[in-house]
Amino acid sequence: MKHDLKRGALLLASATFFTAALNALQKLTGSTLPALEIIFFRNLFSLPFVLLIASRSGIVLKTRHFGGHVLRSVVGLISMIMVVITVTRLPLAEQQVLSYTQPLFLVLLSIPLLHERPSLQRWVAVSIGFSGVIVVALGKGLLHGHGATGAAVPSWAYFVALAQGAVGALTTMQIRQLSATESSTTIALWQAILMTVMTALPLPFIWTTPGLTEAGCLVAVGAFAGIAQVLQTEAFASAQVSAIGPFAYSGLLWAALIGWFGFGEIPGIAMAIGGLLIIGSGVWMLRSDCPARQKVVAEGTMDAATGTPP
Predict the structure, then answer these.
(1) Is the pLDDT of residue 285 over 60?
(2) Exposed / middle / buried, residue 77 (Cβ in 10 Å: 0-12, 13-18, 19+)
């Protein structure tokens, strides 16, 4: 593989921008439209981009593990619902930084599900990462039963955001298991198709007619999700995961800027310090990953553009 660090880093940073932008649009529409309706349009309008990626290596839907794809899609759908709920109620930067706990939960879940034995180095990284979560929680007064930002931001939303990191880690584990026999494009295709169908079924019962502006936002949400996946795919095809992986955390910068200028959300000191600890632990683990695991992370991150945020 040709290694072009500059191109890969630029593409991955651009992908995180589109992910932050689609979260902002979900924040705008999430207060008036049902989460499942938003997710339906997200998957529907991102499907052409998934097909574009798949067409390069051939569109293959044949699978020996359809049940695994269904389970992966269900878990991914739960993760998407949690994202819509949390971005609607939390500042964008705070939701983003809590989503970065996914690698930490990945280490914990690998013990019972994959029977792995994490190294001491990874345990130290996990400890540092969760200490960052505690710093964020202390900054919000969550451990003392009240939020520093007042009643406008419910404490439970922070716990849902943290739980979304665990659910996102579970989807990555499922991708790892499916990738033993399925290509990453097949996994992404089945996810996009199944999630679109799953969210279409309850639409007649929850449908809320969007206004013109909301309809435009819904189209953009799906388009941005698809664009993010294309950019991520190109990024990991351009450079090694260990080299450009840390640029995935540039999403926090985009989320902070969009939250600041678009919603008047100014990140606090505790969020900044906690974010550095969480991101630092994630970068540490990424740098120490073996090549085989890096391939899994790349496939999981590619798939996450239309599934769960990395």
Answers:
(1) yes
(2) buried
